[in-house]
Design a protein that fits this description.
By secondary structure, this protein is α+β, with helices and mostly antiparallel strands. The protein folds into 2 domains: 173 residues, no CATH class; 40 residues, no CATH class. The protein is built from 5 helices and 13 strands. Strands 1-3-2-8-9 form a 5-stranded mixed sheet. The longest helix has 16 residues.
Length: 266
């Protein structure tokens, strides 16, 4: 076997062991503060049922070009809603009171409510990818990988599909110990969620084409934390001491314009 073939095969094998890194290339970040950079990491579940760190599957680089919105909410219900037949009884009493006395049996106190739960924290943001050198790595691949986070892995002849996202039967979802797929997002080193569910991905490709496909795309990304957070956990998300992978001087400038658009065939 020719030495060039051996070298190529060895290089491909080594490359397959490394996580995929795609999206906005490092050259675009020159002089731009980390505060405007976004990283999305995906790890597969750890070995031995979640014990041990799972292998990193990919990392997508992007940077902020629009506002970010975070949502949270909670629900409240009647303090007596779980008492059997309560609502039926109170409705009959109320109907009788109004029919006889012309007054309702309800009081302000009877409308007091109790907390029934809080929703996961949601985050919505817009990402933009522009090809500088390589259309596939800088535009097509990050869009495809983001879409893949909403889809299951193939099973055996269509059966036993492996769901996307974290395993709900794991007590804790971290890169060090998890089952299922662990997706982490770091936004500008100011907020970081260590396990999220990608709920919606909308990719809009531009009609500017190269030989390999569109040279630009916008992605509307909606994600949620994998479960309800406590206040302490939200504090931890904002107290982000996990820095962007390739940290640069934070005295850099805000990106005022999009990446340089590619010219010619890429």
């Amino acid at each position: 076997m020719p030495i060039t073939t051996i070298t190529k095969n060895f290089g491909n094998a080594l490359k397959s062991l490394l996580p995929i890194v795609c999206g906005v290339p490092d050259s675009v970040f020159s002089g731009i503060s980390d505060r405007y950079k976004i990283e999305i990491h995906a790890h597969e579940g750890g070995s031995l049922g979640g014990l041990g760190k799972g292998k990193q599957i990919f990392r997508i680089n992007a940077y902020l070009q629009d506002k970010i919105s975070l949502t949270g909410g909670n629900t409240w219900g009647s303090i007596a809603q779980d008492i059997p037949y309560y609502q039926k009884v109170i409705d009959k009493v109320d109907a009788a009171a109004q029919g006889i006395f012309g007054r309702t049996a309800k009081t302000a106190m009877s409308t007091q409510r109790k907390w029934t739960g809080s929703s996961p924290i949601g985050i919505n943001l817009k990402l933009k990818f522009e090809a500088v050198n390589k259309v596939n790595e800088e535009v097509l691949l990050p869009c495809k990988l983001l879409q893949s986070l909403t889809l299951p892995y193939s099973g055996i002849k269509g059966f036993g599909l492996l769901p996307p996202g974290p395993n709900p039967y794991t007590l804790e979802q971290t890169e060090e110990s998890s089952r299922g797929e662990n997706v982490t997002i770091n936004v500008g080193n100011f907020i970081r969620f260590t396990s999220v569910i990608v709920t919606n991905v909308k990719v809009t490709y531009e009609n500017r084409m190269s030989d390999d496909g569109p040279i630009g795309a916008e992605v509307d990304l909606s994600i949620e934390t994998w479960r309800m957070l406590t206040r302490d956990e939200l504090d931890t998300a904002y107290d982000n001491d996990i820095k962007i992978t390739q940290s640069r001087d934070l005295q850099g400038v805000r990106p005022l314009e999009g990446p340089v658009q590619a010219n010619g065939n890429l």
